[in-house]
Amino acid sequence: MSAIANAYIDFSKMTASVVAITVESGDGRKATGYGFNSNGRYAQPGLLAERFIPRLEEAGELPAHEDGGFDPVPAWTAMMKNEKPGGHGDRSVAVGVLDMALWDATAKLAGLPLWKLLSNRFNGGRSDATAWVYAAGGYYHPGKDVDGLVEEMKRYLGMGYSVVKMKIGGSPGMPLREALLLDLSRIEAVLKLLDGDGSRLCVDVNGRFGLHAALSYAAAIQGFGLRWYEEPLDPLDYSTHATLAEHYAPPLATGENLFSMLDARNLIRHGGLRPDRDILQFDPALSYGLVEYLRTLTMLREHGWSPRRCVPHGGHQFALNIATGLGLGGNESYPEVFAPFGGFASGVPVEKSRVAMPDVPGIGFEVKNDLWAVLKDL
Ligand SMILES: O=C([O-])CC(=O)C(=O)O
Ligand SMILES: [Mg+2]
């Protein structure tokens, strides 16, 4: 919980679900996998307790995989039994929590880091030695001024990040005219720190704008050459995205609040996004987990999009494994917010905005000290 705010919500009452799942292989080997929900959505205790955990327990035996782990797809199918299509809201978060734990467990049974298991199973053995990461933050916070924002960004640069992201659109309820003036001074101050290089700065609206405000901001920031202009509009308002994309040539980013392959496909079909520059931020932990994310990646390929255009939201190690194992464009990182769930293995440095993966079985939670302190007692 924290007093930080983006343009749409504050995080003062944010909660999270955390689960541990122990699986046993036919030959008596055991592994415990862990899962949690990514930030931006609340804990799912009711959905987990009433529907998804009982169905998972009833799923019974899961098919073994030749790598020594198992296949999580039938577990996913069991969890989604008797769920209607459409309306991909909070249940996709609950399923994502359990899916994360299942992938952690299967990689541990196989004795492989998850990135390696994914690379072997789905990417012909190819993987990236490091992932591109950027430092997200720059929230509105009571009492925090432009100098405080610049100080924060300076700390990220000192940690080894070369690209940073800040919130724009005002804190919740701030009139837009006031927000635009404030944000221009915030953006200009951070750009000064970045030697005027707009390709090192992303800005995030968290879906607050309608078309008029999105276009006004677009016109005001167009000349900065920013890395990307994120979630300017409601994530489900595809045709308005298409209109914005006609008027704003630099990169747009969106997708963190689209929770299924089908929603992602609608964005690709109707959102006017451009496969040569725009960024897709679907967060596997919020959107039914990796089983569904694999379907999303297949859909993207079928529509001419490279996985390199994907930079998941969330800043968790699950997406980081997916990024390196499946060749995504990188992953978000929150060096100062959303602890202990965000971040990387302890002691692994970020160099030139890239980070290496630890060579330990599973997702790597055991080597992230602050997170492991929470998980180990489950
Ligand atoms: O503030 C949030 O909800 C997080 C967010 O948008 C992001 O990480 O891009
Ligand atoms: Mg965002």
Can you walk me through this structure?
The chain is of the alpha/beta class. The chain folds into two domains: 94 residues, Enolase-like, domain 1 (2-Layer Sandwich), CATH 3.30.390.10; 246 residues, Alpha-Beta Barrel (TIM Barrel). 38% of the residues lie in helices and 12% in strands. It is built from twelve helices and eleven strands. The strands form two sheets. Strands 3, 4, 5, 6, 7, 8, 9, 10 and 11 form a nine-stranded mixed β-sheet that branches. α8 links the parallel β6 and β7. α1 crosses α2 and α1 crosses α3. The longest helix is centred in the first third of the chain and has 21 residues. It is globular. The two termini are 20 Å apart. The model has no long low-confidence stretch (mean pLDDT 96). It comes from Sediminicoccus rosea. This is Enolase C-terminal domain-like protein. InterPro entries: D-tartrate_dehydratase (IPR034611), DgoD-like (IPR034593), Enolase-like_C_sf (IPR036849), Enolase-like_N (IPR029017), Enolase_C-like (IPR029065), Mandelate_racemase_C (IPR013342).
